[in-house]
Amino acid sequence: MTYSHATSARPRILTGDTPTGQLHLGHWVGSVENRVKLQDKYECYFLLANMHAYTTRADKPDEIRASTIQIVKDWIACGIDPERSTIVLQTECPAIAELTWFLAMLLPFNRVMRNPTLKTEIEDKGLGENYPFGFPMYAVGQCADILAFRPELVPVGEDQVAHIEPCREVARRFNQLYCGVDPHTEDGDYLQAGGLFPIPKAEIGRVGRLPGVDGKKMSKSLNNAIYLTDTPKQIKKKVGQIFTGRQAMDEPGDTSNLLFDYVRAFIPDPDRVAELERKYAAGDDIGDGHVKVEVADAIDAIVAPMRERRADFEGDAGDEKVIELIKAGTRKANEVAEETLYEAKKAMRLDYGRRVLELG
Asked: Which CATH superfamily is domain 12-210+316-347 in?
């Protein structure tokens, strides 16, 4: 059996964000920067995982809706172009939910609960044993998010890599069970061997994990994030909170500290980075304050064009423009996801007819 795997000659990408708030610098260097660069080379699908947001915030539908719209504004501000990439709203792509159900039969529950990212989220959010059944289901749902679009690559931050491995496992399992692919097949050969799903690979950004200004994981809840909407004054204030423990300018400094993580992440000139590292390590009359000013300026040089692009989408009129972009992208995405679902159901001997979706 052979399958159609693309609507263009370019290979596919699928990645996205759960609408839990504004995007920050950690999102930018970990994944979003990569997405912007890959738009011309790949057929890109960017998912708004608003269904997943309900796993821990089912009592806050207004917040989830607002965050969903805000993230699209952040994406556009960053350089995601709806003319070149497809924005997908998860809740309006029913093939994802249906595929989640089928894939859940191929992943043992104990395998889902061994996911280290899932365990970390349970701890970080203080859920204990009081989380809904849908919370671990979202780990299976992420597999469906990805496989519904049959991508080759999934650009993610380092903390999301653990979610990609179950997706790879379930893709192999489906191909073996329903498409007759030999279990000894190399990952890159599954399609050629008759499989429906490619075995997707994670693509980590140039900075795998950027800490917050306090050294902990960058997040809204810890109030340690620099947002892509921050003003120059806000950026300068937040960078100023970075602590190194160095006492004086003539004291040798350890460039493995948090401040120099930011230097290496945001100062674009490698020669200047090397110079700052050399002077700082030698105690050559350069203080933390000097370095922080330079880091803040470098960050603002990245964020300033984002603020300008975002200004075109402010207010209620901007929200309406975003909703129309979401609808247009999701219509296109449904064509792809429905094709995948039909082919999956056909492989499972469930092909009783195609359905046609229309998003009003």
From this structure: HUPs (3.40.50.620)
* Backbone phi, psi, residue 270, to 5°: -60, -30
Q: pTM of the predicted model, to two decimals? A: 0.89
Q: Is 243 helix (H, G, I), strand (E, B) or coil?
A: coil
Q: Burial of 275 by CB count in 10 Å (0-12 exposed, 13-18 middle, 19+ buried)?
A: middle
Model confidence over 290-339: pLDDT tens digits? 999 999 999 999 999 999 999 999 899 999 999 999 999 999 999 999 99
Longest dimension (CA), the chain: 76
Pairing status of strand 153-156 against strand 201-204 = parallel
Task: Say how far apart CA 152 and CA 62 lie, in whole Å.
Answer: 34
- Closest by Cα among 247, 260, 246, 252 to 211: 260
Q: Are 127 and 135 in contact (CB under 8 A)?
A: yes
> Does domain 232-310 match CATH 3.40.50.1820?
no
What pLDDT digit, counting tens, does each position of 101-124 carry? 999 999 888 888 887 777 777 777
